[in-house]
Automatic annotation (TrEMBL):
Keyword Isomerase: no
Top-level taxon in the UniProt lineage: Bacteria
Protein name: Helix-turn-helix domain-containing protein
Keywords: DNA-binding
Entry-linked InterPro entries: Cro/C1-type_HTH, Cupin_2, Lambda_DNA-bd_dom_sf, RmlC-like_jellyroll, RmlC_Cupin_sf, TransReg_Diox_bact_type
UniProt GO cellular component terms: cytosol
């Protein structure tokens, strides 16, 4: 997908940021792969931008590093007011394999230290999914901007369509997928920040 398709600025250095954080923690690739529950070769491909992780895998890697997706992209400073103009918001692409549908996570909220909210727009290509159950501290709320999706929380499958909203405790196992034949976009807010 080209940048102009979504009006986003893709974050090209996810792998470099993960590698820097791993090295900062004094971990080898194998140690981090073991802690995160992913293969050494997959982690190496992610760090060298040859593969994009699923959302679940990205959560596992950042948790194994003792950080979060948000902290990897922490911005300098901290301001009372922050603005991301359309076409200038940072985004990250997650997918399980390069030939599978992707999820684009577009940042709406700043990543300053001490922020209490984490707001993103998740854009799911047809058939895209989060890659398995995720669980972490906090709460989540979402609103389906367009398309349709299936949210599974604690084993309960919840069909969602445009205009639906949802809330759940993040400690419950959760995952989602696009069940629509077109693109699905969801406004997703977490507290505390986990992305």
């Amino acid at each position: 997908m080209e940048d102009s398709d979504q009006g986003q600025m893709p974050i090209q250095d996810l792998g470099a940021r993960l590698r820097a954080e791993r090295q900062n923690k004094g971990l080898t690739l194998k140690q981090l792969a073991d802690r995160a529950g992913c293969s050494l070769s997959m982690l190496s491909k992610i760090e060298t931008e040859q593969a994009s992780p699923s959302l679940k895998t990205l959560h596992q890697i950042t948790a194994a590093l003792g950080t979060s997706i948000l902290q990897l992209f922490r911005e300098a400073g901290g301001q009372d007011v922050s603005l991301y103009r359309h076409g200038e918001r940072p985004s990250v692409v997650v997918r399980r394999q390069s030939d599978q549908p992707a999820i684009y996570i577009e940042r709406l909220s700043p990543t300053y230290a001490g922020t209490m909210l984490d707001a993103n727009i998740h854009t799911l290509e047809p058939g895209a999914d989060s890659g398995g159950d995720i669980r972490h501290d906090g709460e989540e709320i979402g609103y389906v901007l367009e398309g349709a999706a299936e949210l599974c929380v604690n084993g309960e499958v919840i069909p969602l369509v445009q205009g639906d909203s949802f809330y759940f405790a993040s400690a419950l196992p959760h995952r989602y997928r696009n069940t629509f034949d077109g693109t699905t976009r969801i406004l997703w807010v977490n507290t505390p920040p986990t992305f």
